């Protein structure tokens, strides 16, 4: 280090020791607004200085201890016109559900204080965005039925048969079901409006594994494949009765089921429509007569179709080729008829062929 550098360092230290700290703080806080505020009334101040703020964040708080001592939270609460809502931490949701008559009822799952509360969804899937922006308005516009005010609706006959009253035991007895095999009361189709636009509620994937009757390894392979495809752990079903001609024994595991809801169901339908169905060779589409009459559409994939799923295709060597099963897919919608359900699935991109049964 040279002598010139030493002399400059000693000079700076001497200047710091001589200058008081108060002068430093005043110099740091000097700016145009303070000079304007300190100007005497007789002295003329320019308009530019008058527009500047006279208070700066560099000023220290005058006396914070007095403000803290003067603060009274109880007095502030008593002076509030309306009390704040109770905190969600004041109530602890019961751990077990003890029935509808128990005095302690758990809050709904949408309540943040519920044990079943799941935050979200924070984003919509591609199929959900397409449905909200395009498909739902188009369905409501295509199926709109204008009913002028004052229109008298035609009276419909009773769907259930009443008793003729020939016996005293008929009094108070509920009405009988419709005539025909099974006596099943079918769901009536309701007109579509902005409150009941059809949408997908859940998707059920079911696979009957015939090879599991002789070797349980077939059931394990099918379970691994369905869990990879759907993202849901499959439920194993056991035979309720013994059938000697099919080689089925009671309580023997023979089938698997996966149920998807929410974004998982929409992702699976999107995957089937855009990735799997276009790659199936010589596939005419979904049969137009499918459906249960209540808005649920079913179709299936054989072994060749199951291999085309990306989760299976990327790890094809992990599955024994002869053990990969096919499966059925049931799309449950909020529609009240198969016609409305087919309109929804057609708009999503599912191809139908043959005669469409209303």
Summed over residues and divided by their number, the pLDDT gives a mean of 83
Strand proportion? 5-15%
The CATH homologous superfamily of the domain at 202-353 is called Ribosomal protein L5
Enumerate how many helices there are, as a single number. Answer: 12
> Which structural category fits the helices and strands?
alpha+beta
Tally of strands: 7
Rg of Cα set: 38 Å
Percentage of residues assigned to helices: 25-40%
CATH architecture of the domain at 202-353: 2-Layer Sandwich
Separation of the first and last Cα atoms: 99 Å
N-to-C SSE string, H for helix and E for strand = HHHHHHHEHEEHEEHHEHE
Shape designation: extended
Most strands sheet: 5 strands, antiparallel
Briefly, what CATH class of the domain at 202-353?
Alpha Beta
CATH topology of the domain at 202-353: 50s Ribosomal Protein L5, Chain: A
| Low-confidence region ranges | 18-33
Question: Strand sequence of the main sheet, in spatial order?
Answer: 2-3-1-6-5
